[in-house]
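Re: MRU structure - here you go.
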Amino acid sequence: MLVNGKHFKTVWSEGKHVKMIHQNLLPFDFKIHTCHNYVETAYAIRDMIVRGAGAIGCTAALAMAQAFIEHFPDWNQIDNARRFIESMRPTAQNLFYATKFVAENAQNHIDALELAQLICSQDSNASKAIGEYGAELILNNYSVATHCNAGWLAFTDYGTALAPIYEASRQGKKLKVFVDETRPRSQGARLTAWELYNEGIEHYIIADNATAFFMQKGNIDMMIVGADRIAANGDVANKIGTLEKAILARHFGIPFYVAAPKATFDIHCATGKDIPIEFRNQNEVLYATGPNENNINETILLANPGSPALNPAFDVSPAELISGIITEVGIIKADYQSINKLFKNV
Ligand code: MRU
């Protein structure tokens, strides 16, 4: 993806260092964050310097490679590192897919780095293919709504929910994007809006609770969201607020698509009830941070002093509310048979 005319991936390795776009600073500042060892890389996942299912997976793979570089041939230490990396965030399946892939297939530190890089290139290729399949669903002059950020920042490149939008726009289709702000961390208002602005795609940030208004007015033709984990029956865990949008879309008869690579499916979770949901610090709900008029970052309290908050980071949309899942091998139904077939064909 181009930033000020220069091509960037969201995360990459340079020698034994892992580098990434510092997403907590966006859209106000663009900086590259360097992690010198696997512990620093794991903390970058925990602190959401890098976030989004695919980007977390690639970062976790690169962290595993660093663990091999630092500790091979001490398999105990490598196992400890794997558990440590996996403890950083519980919901995104890509993280566990990536650590398993590297830890179980690498024989040494050279393999580990190659396998981690393979995860990153598979992530980017899958996203590109998702863009191509998904673009077929977007007609000229469509208004598409999305929630959170499942753009290129959430992967190594292209993204999932935004990839069809980018592809449709490149094909010359005129489109408009409704961007839910995505409280409490505002990944929609900060990250999706930044991506679409840089791509020159018409977009409008809307408050999370304004979606029904625009759907009722007939302003939204379809909705595409990403996924952090998809259960064997097609239930989808995604950023908190997605379930509300899925229910609204069904109420107003609006197609509701999920875009995700195979690495996001967890066929060991029978249904969405088995997906672990992360609860995060209440301060994300109670406070907001951003630059003041002098461009100095400030954190301000948004709520009644002393009132506690609850902060679930994800919710689960049941399969029956999902029109289809756009994967790198085509658009499938959100049901057990289709998902089973997807994995039998590997
Ligand atoms: O908490 P985050 O920002 O890591 O959340 C993940 C997400 O960005 C969203 O849930 C997204 O829609 C799916 S990730 C591709």
